[in-house]
Amino acid sequence: MFWTDEIADDIIAKNPNQKKFIIRDEKTLSGRVHIGSLRGVVIHGIIAQALRERGKEVEYYFEFNDFDPMDGLPVYLDQEKYKQYMGQPLYTVPSPDPKYKNYAEYFGEEFLAVIKSIGFDPKIIRASDLYLKGKYNKWIERVLKHPKEIRDIYKEVSGSIKPDDWYPFQVICEKCGKVGTTKVTGMNGDKVTYSCEPNMVKWAQGCGHKGEVNPYDGRGKLPWKVEWAVKWCGLGVNIEGSGKDHNTSGGSHDISERICREILDMPPPYNIPYEFFLIEGAKMSSSKGRGSSSKEIADLLPPELLRFLMIKIPPKRPIDFNPEGTTIPVLFDQYDQAADQFFMDQKTFPDLERLFHYAQLSEKEPKKHYLPRFSRVMFFLQMPHLDAKKEVSALKGEDLTKEDIAEVNLRVDYGKKWLADYAPEQFKFEIQKELPKVVLTDTQKKFLSDIAKLMTEDLKGEELHGKIHEIRKSSTLEPRQAFEAIYLVLLGKNSGPQAGWFLEALDKEFVMKRFNEASQL
Ligand SMILES: [Zn+2]
Questions:
Q1: Distance 214 CA to ligand 1 centre (A)
Q2: Cα(271)–Cα(279) distance, rounded to whole angstroms?
Q3: d(CA 305, CA 309)
Q4: Could you tell me the pTM of the whole model?
Q5: Third-level CATH fold of 442-519
Q6: How far does residue 205's CA lie from ligand 1's centre (Å)?
Q7: CATH topology of domain 3-138+224-277
Q8: For the segment 97-125, what is each residue's pLDDT rounded down to a tens digit?
């Protein structure tokens, strides 16, 4: 069974009488959002879809976490300008672009545009709103009544020993506005006393202020593992998966689960642990802060393909993505195979059919249409005088429908970007207007002149390909030497597209003239 269906059925089996489910995910908006964070959004999004398709009501919340402190400076930011904000809650840091309300909104909106482009529309909530509106007040009150129990949970689950004067809360300093630098020093009725420490963390410096505040309505925040449990309870979350890093034994999920059950008296949500999305390849260096953000990967692939890529591997396995090499043409081929299964009457691979179903942007049934092979479209794109739509129509053997045309245009658009940035040499070629400087053996020259004669017959690609192979066999040439001659004189390089289809698509007179010219060198 396809993994999405398996999880959705399992959720329902464990909650047979529940009609409505709350699903939640979040991202701390500390900078450009890495593609890895999209994996969680997609997993939650299609589980929401699968539950809806099973007749359940679902609310999918995605939180812009804008209340965490700024604890690192991305390399693409003006370091001088931003270092003063280190330690402040992200929603109080100015946006790199003044059109956005704050730093977190700027990166959040860019990520949200990607989320929407692949067909998900979660309800956006903001950590700052929830804190400031007092949504977590009653849970904060409960947490602050049990500092010792929480310290014990940390110790039992992860072995981390918190000092006896440690309280699970951080105040936003009333003087300098930082939250990453403060330490609660005690409780005084319904207030907490705190100090803003100059040397508590390496990445920010506190101002030394000491004060006393009421800890509610956004005056401070809970530490992550406690906060996570409060977030579940505050919204009544039923389902929330999380990355591998949170799901190690004794890790943050284990701690949050125990706080949820034992301190907040609520059941923790159904967990879907998922592996990383890894980006590989020399061009994808994230140290430069480029190449692996959600937006950058989304720009490489049509939305359905990106969604397909995210869904085809079950959550428990990592996704390794290297846009260089043959990855993208292979991904298109896999998508086309899944489409074949979907539209086929007798399904031989039901999981592929389900995968295609979940890869669609709309929950409406997709309309069957012609999917031209990506590598063929790349070939048409690089042939002078060829019109991709006309060629695809010839491949289909019929006129193209509106949906077919949209598909060709899509593959042409993304194909152009791929050819420019990522396509390996074997996929790229350019017809040379003049005969390139080449050295050919006499046997190679004879081979080319024989093909030139063959070109006078009106042969289709496959036939032509067969005949070229026959000529090669009757000569003393190795296949590599033979085909190299064709590519060298036309493209100036020693490899190229499949010869028969390639020559068929070129102007016959041009090929004959070029091959004869080369054979007389
Ligand atoms: Zn301060």
A1: 16
A2: 25
A3: 6
A4: 0.91
A5: Arc Repressor Mutant, subunit A (1.10.10)
A6: 8
A7: Rossmann fold (3.40.50)
A8: 999 999 999 999 999 999 999 999 999 99
